Amino acid sequence: MKPPTVIFQITAIGKNARALDESARSVLYWLRNTPRLWFRPVVWVLIEPEGYASAPELYDALGREGIRLLVVPAGFTTPLGALGKARALHYATERRVELGLSNASTWIYHQDEETCVGEDTLLGISSFVRSGRHLVGSGVILYPIDWTGTPTHIQELTRSYDDFRVLDSMTEPGNPTAGFHGSHILVRADAEDLAGWDAPGYAPAEDLAFEIRFRARFGSVFGVLNGFAYEKGAYSLADQLRQRRRWVHGVLHALFRSRDLPRSRRVTVAYSALSWFSALPSILVLVASLFVHYGPLLFFTGVFTGFVWVSMVTAYLEGFRLHSEYVRRSTSLPRLVLYGIVGALVDIAAPWFALLTRPTRNDFIPKDRPAASGQSVRPRATD
Amino acid sequence: MAGSRTSPNPKPGEAPASPESSPDPGGLEEPSVAQRRASHGEAGTDGLPAWARFPHVDSSREGRAFDSETESSDEARRAETERVLRELDGLPEEMRPRGRAAGAPPSPRPPEPTPANEPPLAEPPEAAAPADLWDSPDTYLEERLRIANATATELGRDLRTIAETWTRVVGNIESLETEVKHAHDEVAFIRAAARGGGAPPRRLPEAATPAPAPTSVRTPATVPRPGAPTRSPGAVAATHVPYAGFTAERYNRTIGALKARRRRLAAWTFVSAGVISLALVTVTALAKEAMPPWWLSVLPAVWMIPVPFFVLSFRGTQRVLRHNHLEVPGGPP
Predict the structure, then answer these.
(1) Environment class of residue A140 by beta-carbon count within 10 Å: exposed (0-12), middle (13-18) or buried (19+)?
(2) How many CB pairs lie under 8 A apart between chains A and B?
(3) Does residue B54 belong to the interface with chain A, where contact is any CB pair within 8 Å?
(4) CA distance B31 to B25
(5) Following DSSP, what letter does each residue of A82-120 receive, concatenated?
(6) In terms of DSSP bridges, do strands A185-188 and A106-111 run parallel, antiparallel, or are they unpaired?
(7) What would you report as the CA-atom Rg of chain A, rounded to the nearest whole angstrom?
(8) For A278, which of B302, B324, B325 is closest by C-beta distance?
């Protein structure tokens, strides 16, 4: 039996050229240095024309390294009129069909522009495609690249630990806590092309829409992908806020616009959103308790409050432990606690900020390291 | 070179050390007298036997140095004395510096020795004094130094080139060894995979819409392995790329540690949550507050919204860590 083909597909606008370059080169590096991979690799970089125009030399250099560069034509339209990233992903689908790569022996590993891979990622992919038990795989993402210990980066620690919740929910029928990724996912090509990325208009969270469509079509075919992916957090609180706002808009878009969302799934997605929205009122009620006495009502709430608080603190602690092999702590513990609180406040405010603003396609989150920052702390990976 | 210790010339203010060195021919003593003094045990150079005073000549009875002169006439002795005196007169000329500076007068050429005036016992003239030699270096010396300097520089450059080449060769050998090992692993893995085979691809369920799958699957026969090795992996690893440290070993260590503390994590969560909750309930009980208006109960209920989410999250995390073999086969767990 011939080994399958894995397409490492980096889909982005392309304006964060240096971050994308680093991601592509991480794939090349570990393909070169990891034997015993049971697949034949291909690397695709899928960008928009404006992204290519921002750094043509860099992208041409990647092309000379053996990477296939796909620039989505400016006039390209999908049958349903998808916009944004979904449009580019649909374009890649059409290219695969043209090349005869839309089959059961081809897999697509989806990467964002800042998604670097490691040896473990490739070995995890190899094991996954060799087992062939699932059509989609997803794993845990760490955020050690360009780590500087800012409030945003501290907040990202919790996302890594939360990924275990995502993996469990994703592999459960119905995905009870609505967990999925847009990157670090591995999808069999024929199944992905059948489910498709095409959707009317602009979907702020095209990955959630895809997961809903895919699950509706193929059922619970999701598996755990071993190996981390390595990404980077936003560089500022404003970027973090805008990134979270886009996620909330994506959830709301799926709730109110997705025709493929079953009723049961709609409930779970709504509850997940409600949990996030409840964070800010919880804080306000807590502050209000200084003036308003809730009295015996606290007998009931006090029983569960401890569990919620401990779960939140555990997410920070275990998230940091997951990163401890990859980043060097440069700030004191009190500062870490303070930064964690600041980062959490941004996440708490994000859904309400999203309600007050409209979705926009211009939410460009810089991922290229600013020239003047990020130099004080080097990732431990470079030691 | 003869030193002052062996020089027969007297030092300034000193009396002649030996009768032979005396410029005064009238001061010479006859060998017979010296021999007599020696035979009487007189101290001093004059008392030495002839073989000791003239070690460069055969002083035996058959070849005695002065036997012929001793037995010759006074005229022969005078001629001998004159030759010695001439030779002594020529010494200052020999000692004169021989610089070749422009305008310097040429040193007087010593008289050609003739059989008549050739000193039979005189040694070849000694070289000039050291101070005179270093006074003005030879022109060829500068040239030789220049050549030697250039050669040394070139030699150093060649050595550095050899060292760099050696370093490159060592790096290439390491790269070659690494690639050969990887190739060996790759071949062994492919052979094992060919024997065992992979799982057949699962058939997709019937789609509601026709699949746009091609009629003939046209997978490229040879998918190019991107990024053919152009430099050694070690060299790449040495550069500061953040992804170079994302190894399977680190991953296995990280994920293994998390799995190992899964039970402790659960225990810590329950115990800590219990302590906090107990404290809150105790404080509420001690406060002994009155029941608030009914509508206020809505507010604390907000805190209860995410409780199921956190419970599911805790359960899911524990389940993923317990049921999944999360390690990858690349490094020690």
Answers:
(1) buried
(2) 346
(3) no
(4) 14
(5) EETHHHHHHHHHHHHHHHT--STTEEEEEE-TT-B--HH
(6) antiparallel
(7) 21
(8) B302
pTM over 0.90: no
**Mean pLDDT in chain B?**
67
Burial A93-113 (b: 16+ CB within 10 A, else e): bebbbebbbbbbbbbbbbbbb
SS3 A64: helix
Find the largest Cα–Cα distance for chain B: 163
Q: Put residue A167 in one of left, alpha, beta given phi > 0 → left and psi -120 to 50 → alpha.
A: alpha
Max Cα distance, chain A (Å): 72
- List of chain A residues whose C-beta atoms are within 8 Å of the C-beta of residue B180: none
pLDDT digits (tens, 9 = 90+) for A143-181: 999 888 899 999 999 999 999 999 999 999 988 888 888
Residue ranges of B 293-312 with Cβ closer than 8 A to chain A: 296-297, 299-312
3-state secondary structure of B65: coil
Residues from chain A contacting residue B324 (CB–CB below 8 Å): 167, 224, 226
| CB within 8 Å: B214 and A100 | yes
Q: Which ipTM score applies to this complex? A: 0.91
B242 and A382: CB-CB below 8 Å? yes
Contact indicator for A127, A223 with CB cutoff of 8 Å: no
Handedness of CA A269, A315, A19, A370 (dihedral sign): positive
**Alpha-carbon gap, residue B276 to A309, rounded angstroms:** 9
**Looking at the complex, does the CB of residue B101 fall below 8 Å from at least one CB of chain A?**
no
Chain B environment of A104 (Cβ under 8 Å): 201-202, 204
Alpha-carbon gap, residue A102 to A98, rounded angstroms: 8
- Binary contact (A120, B328; C-beta < 8 A): yes
DSSP state of B219: -
B-chain residue closest to A7, CA distance:
B223
pLDDT digits (tens, 9 = 90+) for B236-252: 344 567 899 999 999 99
**Chain B environment of A144 (Cβ under 8 Å):** 242
Question: Rounded CA gap, A217 and A267, in Å?
Answer: 19
Buried residues in B204-229 as b, exposed as e (16+ CB within 10 A): beeeeeeeebbeeeebeeebeebbee
Convert the pLDDT of each residue in B262-291 to its tens digit. Answer: 999 999 999 999 999 999 889 888 888 877
- Please indicate if any CB of chain A lies within 8 Å of the CB of B234: no
Give the 3-state secondary structure of residue A45: strand
Please give the residue of chain A at the shortest CA–CA distance from B290.
A295
| Chain A from 289 to 318: CB within 8 A of any B CB | 292-311, 314, 318
